[in-house]
Amino acid sequence: MTLSASMSAALSGLNATRRQTDVISSNIANALTEGYGRRSVALSVRPLGGVEVGTVQRNVNERIIGDRRLAQAAAGEADTRAQALLRIEGLLGAPDEASSLTAAYARFEGALIEASSRPDVPARLDTVARAGVALADRFESISDGLQDLRLEVDQQIAREVTRLNSSLQQIAELNALIFNSGSNGQDAAALQDQRQVLIDSVSEIVPLRQVQREGGKVALFTPTGGILLEGTAATIGFTPVNLITPDMTLASGALSGLTLNGNPVRTDGDNAPFAGGTLHALFAQRDEIAVEAQAGLDMMARDLVERFQDPALDTTLAPGDAGLFTDGGAAFVSTDEEGLSARLEFNILADPDRGGDSWRLRDGLGAAVTGPVGNASLLQAVADRLNESRSSPSAAATGLSRSASGHAADFLSGLAARRQSGEVELGYQMARYDTLLGAELAGGVDTDRELQQLLIVEQAYAANAKVLQTIDEMIQRIMAI
Q1: Which ranges carry the Flagellar basal body rod protein N-terminal domain (predicted)?
Q2: Cα distances (angstroms) measured from residue 416 to each of 92, 288, 289
């Protein structure tokens, strides 16, 4: 090999080591940067000797990343569902909490027992009335809390859809930039990092499958067939509302579903185009979990009303008169159960704080005048009716015969069981996600390995520099002859 060829080979080696040093430095500096893919330089031997520096390659395991994204979506869905059940359980309260629904039942029952022991004491009758008002108010506050939850979820869906549309549009723009960079021979690794971060953010909202296309572009699909990005970004539509009442549902058309490029798509079920992820779970919160909780609450309110809306219990009531608990002040009609808990009221005739007379609890709601003050038969009958095992005709009932508070206990235990099951599912999905995330990170930047590689590059640099120094010395000796 001639001196000029040797010099050219050594110079190419120095250029290669410089490029490698830049890439290794970038890897170490971005070891903790989200979405960063480890870089490496493609090197090859030149035909006439020396090193040919190729393109900078971005090294990521797309299969592991894809599986991690699906696990991320599943974990997000499980967490969203679990949080909804936990919040609803908190609205009803634990049995040992003074503000719980079961505690309100217990206070009303206790007040009835105390009043029946001394029906001649007006203060005890007043306590019964106020406990009844508090029980009705507790139903209303829980119902209001459920509708507030649904409204918050509806607004959150709108924010998620906006973020989804914005991210998909940005990914489409990055696709174009990456394609153009590749066509011009420019390094597109940084653009690919940005695209991965955006896709990762979308994958928690909606589970994604990424498919490579020509020129470095990607297409995005949901596992159930929804096309989010294929050349151009899809447009997801949603219309939020400003108020939600118990009768407002997706089926009635009062609440918005999703559209994909203007076409309505399902939001429920495992085969829906957006099934999985937080968006799917939010619709489940609004249209399933909270609606089922409202139906259970209405069932308990109906049971409470129908127990005492009976002329056989209070002979002063005429057929069609409202009983001790009313539907907004009127008698309850069995076909109007939906939203009853939000309208439940204690009968104003027996409420001393609203102009009524608490002695009617002892003598009858329809009594014209007070009766014998020592007669506790009606108070005892009301207490017995409260504890009587009855099955509810409501569609949301279990079909089992229970006392009034027993129906509430069944509802609470069922909700707790669902919440516990949801937490188990969340634990599984988080463990799966953490495992896949660990596998992804293990294939990323290892600073120890990068530093070892840097030592090798430094040795190569020293070797090439030595060749140039030797050539220089040889030339100097030749010139001295």
Answers
A1: 8-36
A2: 11, 16, 13
